[in-house]
Amino acid sequence: MHNVVIIGSGCAGNTAAIYTARASLKPLVIKGVEVGGQLSLTTEVENFPGFPQGILGPELVENMKLQAERFGAVYLDGEVSEADLSKRPFRLKVEGEWLETSTLIVASGAKARWLDLPSEQKLIGHGVSSCATCDGFFYREKKIMVIGGGDSAMEEANFLTRFGSSVALVHRKDTFRASKIMLDRAKANPKIEFILNTTVDEVYDVSQNIVTGVRLHNLVTGEKWDRDVDGFFVAIGHIPNTQVFKGQLDLDADGYLISHGGARTNITGVFHAGDVQDRIYRQAITAAGAGCMAAIEAEKLLEAEGH
Ligand code: NDP
User: Fold this and answer.
1) Structural contact between residues 195 and 174, judged by C-beta atoms closer than 8 angstroms
2) Alpha-carbon Rg of the chain, whole angstroms?
3) What is the pLDDT of residue 38?
4) Average pLDDT value over all residues in the chain
5) Cα dihedral: 83, 63, 132, 172 (round 10)
């Protein structure tokens, strides 16, 4: 029987682990499929306070884990396949075995949706990115391409015009899911070129381990052509990792956890932290802050219950 189980080993989960471990609660962290979370998919992180020279994403999360282990946090390989939150202690099935916990911090994150091209996957962190705020800075005076037709794509394209010499927005239709105001803003930006009814067939150049261009494909005319690109930003949505909690925790229409104030969910003793609840900021530092909040709330609840 655990005091605190934390699901997820990204910034949010690791920070919750540091705080609950320092409160002598011996947290158990279930690492999940994407060990280290979204930071493990990035290279240089320049906007996490405290690192004036920047730090590599995987190194930053590994440091957080070491920091939590120093105070007694335990990390478990595997993922949660079933959860029973109907009463406390909560029960979680991890790699075939059930475990019990008094409190639970859900920091299971959200996966960026990708085009799922083999070349795109191989070049993540080498010119392919799912986060303009994180990586835009690296593409000063470079050719940038953004994929998507929703608010994220419009926002990222607008933001990236601060850096790029050009920004091409590629969308598979000529109608948009983006809100009118976001679309109008992007259309009014002279630095953004819209390439519509078009998909990407391949991202070049895996052999050089860096993005140099793409093969585009017009779905209406069938035309295919190559274009030089340095930064390739995929902004086609995110999928929160909440499937095992369906029907138990309150989720919005897209599957994000709904907050019931602070880090609380609809179930007393279950807290949220990071991208699994946050569809807006999605930053390492905001996830870390949310992990801290969840840890403090779990600690306070356990204290009030006399643990
Ligand atoms: P959305 O689901 O709204 O849009 C996803 C876009 O990606 C769609 O245009 C979709 O095209 C396209 N897409 C999906 N899969 C593929 C694929 N395999 N290949 C090519 N294109 C694909 O996601 P967003 O992340 O843009 O937004 C999510 C939510 O967050 C929305 O509610 C949005 O309003 C909100 N948001 C708000 C912001 C703000 O207000 N500042 C900023 C960012 C997001 P298609 O239309 O053809 O399906």
Assistant:
1) no
2) 21
3) 86
4) 96
5) -40
Taking the centre of ligand 1 as the mean of its atom positions, its distance from the CA of residue 265, in whole angstroms, is: 25
Model confidence, pTM: 0.80
One-letter identity of residue 10: G
95 and 207 in a single domain? The answer is: no
Q: Out of 234, 268, 283, pick the residue that ends a domain.
A: 234
- Pocket (CB within 6 angstroms of ligand 1): 113, 115, 147-153, 155, 172-173, 177, 236-237, 279
Last residue of a domain, one of 200, 219, 234: 234
pLDDT over threshold 80, residue 246: yes
Ligand 1 mutation target, pool 170, 185, 236, 239, most atoms within 8 A of CB: 236
CA-153 nearest atom, ligand 1: 26
pLDDT at 42 over 80: no
Q: What distance in Å separates the CA atoms of residue 117 and residue 126, rounded to the nearest whole number?
A: 15
Best of 113, 146, 151 to mutate for ligand 1, by most ligand atoms within 8 A of CB?
151
Q: How far apart are CA 27 and CA 23, in angstroms?
A: 10
Per-residue pLDDT, averaged over 217-242, amounts to: 97
DSSP for residue 177: S
Residues 228 and 197 in one domain: yes
Contact of 154 with 167, CB cutoff 8 Å: no
Cβ atoms < 10 Å from Cβ of 159: 15
